[in-house]
Amino acid sequence: MFWGEKRYHSLDYHLKKIYGSKVQKISLDAGMTCPTRDGTKGTRGCIFCSAMGSGDFSAGQCGSITEQIDKAILDMSPNKKCGGMYIAYFQSFTNTYAPVDYLREIFFEAISHDKIAGISIATRPDCISKETTELLCELQQIKPVWVELGLQTIHEDTARFIRRGYTLDVFEQTVSQLSDKSIDIIVHVILGLPHETNDEIIETIEYIAHSPVSGIKLQLLHVLKNTDLADYYGTFHIFSEDEYTDLVIECLEHLPEDMVIHRLTGDGPSNLLIAPLWSLKKRSVLNTINRKLKEKNTWQGRLYKRTI
Ligand code: SF4
């Protein structure tokens, strides 16, 4: 099974099929915070998260949403602009953690921009109310809406250790609330969380493979400076490039063929990254994954077993 030249259902392939050309993401900062940072559930955030709230490429941008979009398009290199259409990506912190009137204002502003093909909203499952879900339904009547949920793991002991701040049943309720309204869900998983075995990681992947979600981001755990995770550095295993790329391939084999792969590694900011440093060569990591998929003659979905 092939998706263009790849042996997995890449986001590029998916977007080209829908829009007929390349579509770039524009990272936006809507000035949010998180319940694990503002004192509601904690004050120090998730253990691995930088001060920029997982949005090191967008946080701190100023100006209205329209101004941020226009500036990002202006600053983009000509080869990235090729399709002329963009996804507005609300990336930093928890992008539904605000009164619904404010969310209405910013999301409508983004979706109404003539260069925006759709919006993607990174958030937490414990921060999506019924009212917010109704708003997302309204928005998706206009253009596609994706909701990105940071699950990271299904294992509760790891979730407590990383201070995720919600349990798996909260994730399940939100996924069912969103999927009942046919809203596209993308789930973030981190590979390499402290003390998780490969078998436990595959259990998380299997769980997502059988959930009503349309896309997944596989992210390599980055140890960043000035995070609490940095204090534990040296007490848990850090994947080598070879171990990581082998594991990614195993994950792909367990995911259904129609699930869109939004990410296979990560973007650790080079000025903050402590480990693993090999991940800075993102192109080379992706090339290695593609090469190994061919050598092994395998592909996404090869080991996926439909349960219904
Ligand atoms: S919810 Fe997301 S942005 Fe907030 S602290 Fe956790 S990882 Fe960072």
Topology:
Layout: H1 11-19, E1 23-28, H2 65-75, E2 85-90, H3 100-112, E3 116-123, H4 130-140, E4 145-152, H5 156-161, H6 168-180, E5 184-191, H7 198-209, E6 215-220, E7 223-224, H8 228-232, H9 241-254, E8 260-263, E9 273-275, H10 282-296
Parallel strand pairs: 1-2, 2-3, 3-4, 4-5, 5-6, 6-8
Antiparallel strand pairs: 7-9
The site of iron/sulfur cluster has 12 residues, from loops.
Structure description:
With 308 residues, the protein is an alpha/beta fold. It has a single domain, classed as TIM Barrel (Alpha-Beta Barrel), CATH 3.20.20. It contains 10 helices and 9 strands. It has helices at 11-19, 65-75, 100-112, 130-140, 156-161, 168-180, 198-209, 228-232, 241-254, 282-296, and strands at 23-28, 85-90, 116-123, 145-152, 184-191, 215-220, 223-224, 260-263, 273-275. The strands form 2 sheets. The chain has a 7-stranded parallel beta sheet, with helices on both faces. Helix 7 (198-209) links the parallel strand 5 and strand 6 (215-220). Helix 3 runs parallel beside helix 4 (130-140), helix 7 packs parallel to helix 9 (241-254) and helix 9 crosses helix 10 (282-296). The longest helix is centred in the last third of the chain and has 15 residues, at 282-296. The two termini are 21 Å apart. The structure holds iron/sulfur cluster. Iron/sulfur cluster binds at residues 34, 36-37, 45-46, 49, 53-54, 93-94, 124, 150.
